[in-house]
């Protein structure tokens, strides 16, 4: 069972299982859908993808265009439509807003929030972030905007703010291949909140500079979602701590399966 707080040594049995070289058995809930956050694409999920597929899960990643919140939700729904059974829907960062809206899809059996936003109906993550500012919000000039209204993180600051626990060359590469996000995606109010009706789990990145870790805790506590804290982890926790992230996703799939008739 996930605790409310954990260090880098998390969910020992699940971690040992993920380290096993072969698939032990095909899980009953085998579909996992991963949704990335703003300014990055789905390629960062590769370490988590590899761990889960080795455990017998069928993993699909959503590539959001980041041109409009509605378009990103539609991209997630498109992938959910393709699943051959119930799925665990996972969102990182801004992807948490996307899964909160898209998670009412009938094939979604559970939600996992990874250093993510989880607004309620009528809320938007931009306003919530201003109530509990992050290091990013207090860093002048960190978020840049193109003349046509797309945001990106200053590439010189990206390694320090977004991914300080990744190898420097990997962080610099991510900084230079950003997906620019339309500014409005952060201020679009939600019209659905799947965490109200779907079982949910959360991961707090203890050294998150992009979202205040306290805000992540607020979201998960409000959703009554069991969560762990990975101390020292950056916003890139899904890439820097893939074993712990994959273990939470696997536990969510197991718990949801146990609740099914």
Automatic annotation (TrEMBL):
<feature type="signal peptide">
    <location>
        <begin position="1"/>
        <end position="24"/>
    </location>
</feature>
<dbReference type="InterPro" id="IPR029058">
    <property type="entry name" value="AB_hydrolase_fold"/>
</dbReference>
<dbReference type="Pfam" id="PF12697">
    <property type="entry name" value="Abhydrolase_6"/>
</dbReference>
<feature type="domain" description="AB hydrolase-1">
    <location>
        <begin position="32"/>
        <end position="247"/>
    </location>
</feature>
<keyword id="KW-0378">Hydrolase</keyword>
<keyword id="KW-0732">Signal</keyword>
<dbReference type="InterPro" id="IPR000073">
    <property type="entry name" value="AB_hydrolase_1"/>
</dbReference>
<dbReference type="GO" id="GO:0016787">
    <property type="term" value="F:hydrolase activity"/>
</dbReference>
<protein>
    <submittedName>
        <fullName>Alpha/beta hydrolase</fullName>
    </submittedName>
</protein>
<dbReference type="InterPro" id="IPR052897">
    <property type="entry name" value="Sec-Metab_Biosynth_Hydrolase"/>
</dbReference>
